């Protein structure tokens, strides 16, 4: 599904190389986790894949089902099936959560040549999905992420994911700022979305999230590259021993 | 009598190379047909004398530093074709009393009957000699000339031929909607409304549309104790236009004044509001949302506000938001004056511009002048661009760039729109704004 090959990325403004030949392949239906010390380039990877400004790809490629992501606008990537759950979801005062969601869902459907959802159908769908994530109708009416707690913001991200039904979901430190209950809710939401034709890339600092969302593969990222890949046990090893030994081992 | 008053002496010093202001005033007045007789005759005479005294503003005038007064000084309006495009009706879903003005003159045939329970409505052109408004016409305007002179308001008092005289004694069942239309390419439209809301009464006044090639509109509104006045205006020029508007309000104890104006495009537009909070525990809010596209016609829009706190425990809010692109210019001059003894005043002022490109500019002059020692007054002014982080967030969800910018513009304007209390009216304005933004984004 997602194939990243020898990706080199630098910051446009600082001329600073962040990704230095990152390669990664996530087959359909799999959940991959990326762990790594601060500054290893994890968030940069998520931003470059989703098309944020300020990064320059100097070498390499990233494709979704064979289509190059890097040439597309962010909204085209979204329509192609890519979704990034933000580490810090943005507050947008004055724009209703529902209006935003409906616009996003219908813009994607339109871009894919599908029929737009009617207000009635949309409302039914969003209410059902919101209820599963314990998002109240009142929260749906509020402006996007305004006045939401950290946990509510992350649940709102998962609601967007559930509504947009992307095939490739990237989650950037979705566990940061979550208490135990919120983490369970978010994880349940993600697990409910797991399917043979949907893949996940879960970026996290902590193994704890991976108890809830069990990965097929765990990658360790350092200095802009994947330095080691393995099964879920790799995350446990990081949790117990830290990155020091691992990084020393791979040089 | 008007003719004799026009023969005025020149008080204003002349500057080499610039037209003599008094001569300019003579020419300006000569191009107008001054109304004769009626209940407002004395007020008009007085206005004419005051105008002779102050003259028209020049480029050195402090309050005209950011806006060129010449389009308003010119004797004749520059002819501007009446657009073929019909204005999309606004507030159609609301039950309301619709009163139509064509180039500043009341159009009885196109209007609803002047009948609304709890409200007495007449027109300036047809009022009896003994109208109640005789005590008010030009009075609030004259009081609002200090310390800043506002010559075009004086001109309006002297020369306006028509307008509405509205006296409210109860809480009418529906708002009054004034619809302005254009008919003539070069009409110099001038109108003057006088509104008195009696003790405990309420009025909502809606205003839409554009009048004349050049316009000069005024509202004098006098709120008695506990009276409530809501004003929501929407002005969009699809052609290049010149316009100035004044609101003079006097707010008595426990009364509430709330005004919101949406302005879209136009050439040179200036809105002045002069609000005198005269009684304890009164409230005055004034807000505006402005969309200026210099690509449609050169855009210059100026909001000049002067709020005087003259009583205790009063609240005032000024919320001004301008979205500018293609070299558009926005101006905000807002002042809060807290008089001695106006203790526990709560004054707030914010003016913000969202510049959609580097060619547009926003000029802000916030002023506070406070002579009481137990008050809360705050002001802020910012100029910024589209928040790239928010733009990326929206686009990453599949919202196309143009639509995402519309969302962010609506988000920027939200605080100003929140000043519209009535939800149904606010929804109408939101819908209209969304439509214009979407149309504009496509262009």
Query: Structural class, from secondary structure content of chain B?
Result: alpha/beta
Count of DSSP E strands of chain A?
A: 12
Could you name the CATH class of chain A? Alpha Beta
SSE pattern of chain B: HHHHEEEHHEEEEEEEEEEEEEEEEHHH
What's the helical proportion of residues of chain A? 25-40%
Mean pLDDT of chain B: 91
Which stretches of chain B are poorly predicted, pLDDT < 50 over at least 5 residues?
Answer: 1-20
Q: Provide the succession of SSEs of chain A.
A: EEEHEEHEEHHHEHEHEHEEHH
Q: Please give the largest β-sheet of chain B.
A: 10 strands, mixed
Please characterize this protein's 3D structure.
The complex is a heterodimer of chains A (251) and B (443). Chain A has one domain (2-250): Rossmann fold (3-Layer(aba) Sandwich). Chain A contains ten helices and twelve strands. Chain A has a six-stranded mixed beta sheet with strand order 6-9-10-3-11-12, with helices on both faces. The model of chain A has no long low-confidence stretch (mean pLDDT 92). By secondary structure, chain A is α/β, with parallel strands linked by helices. In chain B, helix 3 packs antiparallel against helix 6. Chain B has helices at residues 2-6, 21-30, 41-54, 70-73, 139-143, 151-159, 388-396, 401-417, 423-442, and strands at residues 97-102, 105-106, 119-123, 164-168, 176-181, 188-197, 202-209, 214-223, 228-236, 242-251, 256-264, 268-277, 283-293, 300-309, 315-325, 329-338, 346-355, 361-370, 376-384. Chain B has 443 residues and is of the alpha/beta class. In chain B, the strands form two sheets. A ten-stranded mixed beta sheet of chain B has the order 2-1-5-7-9-11-13-15-17-19, with helices on one face. Helix content of chain B is 21%, strand content 36%. Chain B starts with a helix and ends with a helix. Chain B has one domain (2-385). In chain B, strand 1 (97-102) and strand 2 (105-106) form a beta hairpin. Classes of the chains: A alpha/beta (251), B alpha/beta (443). Chain A binds chain B through residues 50-53, 73-75, 77-79, 83-84, 86, 89-90, 92-95, 100, 103-105, 107-108, 111, 143, 160, 164, and chain B through 387-390, 392-401, 403-404, 407-408, 410-415, 417.
């Amino acid at each position: 599904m997602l194939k990243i090959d020898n990706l080199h990325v630098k910051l446009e403004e600082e001329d600073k190389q962040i990704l230095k030949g990152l390669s990664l392949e996530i087959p359909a239906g799999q959940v991959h986790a990326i762990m790594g010390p601060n500054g290893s380039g994890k968030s940069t990877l998520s931003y470059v894949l989703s098309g944020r400004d300020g990064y320059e790809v100097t070498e390499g490629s990233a494709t979704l089902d064979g289509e190059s992501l890097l040439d597309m606008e962010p909204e085209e990537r979204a329509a192609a099936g890519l979704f990034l759950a933000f580490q810090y979801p943005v507050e947008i005062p004055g724009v209703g959560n529902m209006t935003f969601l409906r616009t996003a869902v219908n813009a994607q459907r339109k871009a894919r040549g599908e029929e737009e959802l009617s207000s009635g159908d949309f409302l039914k769908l969003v209410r059902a999905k919101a209820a599963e994530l314990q998002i109240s109708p009142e929260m749906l009416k509020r402006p996007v992420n305004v006045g939401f707690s950290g946990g509510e913001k992350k649940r709102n991200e998962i609601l967007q994911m559930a509504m947009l039904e992307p095939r490739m979901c990237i989650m950037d430190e979705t566990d940061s700022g979550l208490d135990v209950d919120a983490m369970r809710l978010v994880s349940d939401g993600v697990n409910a979305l797991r399917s043979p034709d949907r893949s996940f890339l879960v970026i996290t600092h902590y193994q704890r999230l991976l108890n809830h969302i069990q990965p097929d593969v765990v990658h360790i990222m350092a200095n802009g590259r994947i330095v080691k890949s393995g099964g879920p046990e790799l995350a446990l090893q990081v949790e117990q021993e830290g990155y020091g030994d691992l990084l020393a081992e791979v040089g | 009598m008007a003719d004799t008053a026009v023969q005025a002496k020149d008080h204003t010093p002349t500057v080499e190379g610039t037209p003599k202001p008094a001569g300019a005033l003579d020419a300006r007045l000569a191009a107008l047909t001054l109304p004769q007789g009626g209940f407002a005759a004395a007020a008009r005479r007085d206005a004419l004398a005051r105008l002779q005294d102050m003259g028209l503003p020049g480029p050195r005038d402090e309050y005209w530093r950011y806006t060129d007064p010449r389009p308003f000084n010119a004797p004749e309006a520059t002819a501007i074709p009446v657009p073929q495009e019909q204005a999309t009706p606004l507030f159609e879903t609301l039950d309301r009393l619709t009163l139509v003005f064509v180039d500043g003159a009341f159009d009885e045939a196109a209007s609803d009957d002047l009948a609304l329970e709890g409200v007495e409505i007449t027109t300036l052109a047809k009022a009896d000699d003994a109208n109640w408004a005789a005590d008010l016409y030009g009075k609030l305007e004259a009081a609002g000339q200090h310390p800043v002179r506002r010559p075009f308001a004086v001109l309006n008092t002297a020369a306006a031929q028509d307008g509405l005289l509205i006296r409210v004694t109860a809480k009418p069942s529906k708002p009054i909607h004034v619809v302005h239309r254009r008919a003539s390419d070069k009409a110099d439209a001038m109108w003057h409304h006088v509104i008195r809301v009696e003790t405990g009464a309420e009025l909502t006044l809606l205003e839409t549309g554009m009048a004349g090639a050049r316009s000069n509109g005024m509202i004098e509104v006098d709120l008695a104790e506990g009276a409530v006045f809501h004003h929501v205006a929407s002005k969009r020029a699809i052609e290049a236009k010149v316009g100035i508007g004044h609101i003079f309000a006097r707010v008595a104890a426990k009364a509430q004044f709330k005004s919101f104006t949406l302005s879209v495009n136009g050439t040179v537009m200036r809105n002045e509001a002069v609000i005198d909070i005269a009684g304890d525990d009164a409230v005055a809010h004034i807000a505006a949302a402005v969309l200026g596209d210099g690509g449609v016609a050169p855009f210059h829009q100026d909001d000049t506000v002067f709020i005087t706190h003259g009583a205790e425990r009063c609240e005032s809010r000024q919320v001004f938001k301008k979205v500018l692109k293609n070299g558009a210019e926005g101006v905000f001059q807002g002042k809060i004056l807290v008089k001695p003894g106006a203790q526990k005043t709560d004054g707030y002022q914010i003016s913000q511009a969202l510049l959609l490109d580097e060619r547009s500019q926003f000029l802000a002059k916030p002023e506070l002048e406070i002579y009481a020692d137990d008050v809360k007054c705050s002001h802020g002014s910012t100029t910024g661009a589209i928040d790239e982080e928010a733009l990326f967030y929206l686009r990453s969800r599949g919202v196309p760039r143009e639509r995402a910018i519309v969302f962010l513009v609506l988000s920027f304007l939200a605080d100003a729109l929140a000043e519209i209390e009535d939800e149904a009216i606010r929804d109408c304005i939101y819908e209209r704004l969304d439509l214009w933004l979407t149309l504009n984004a496509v262009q």
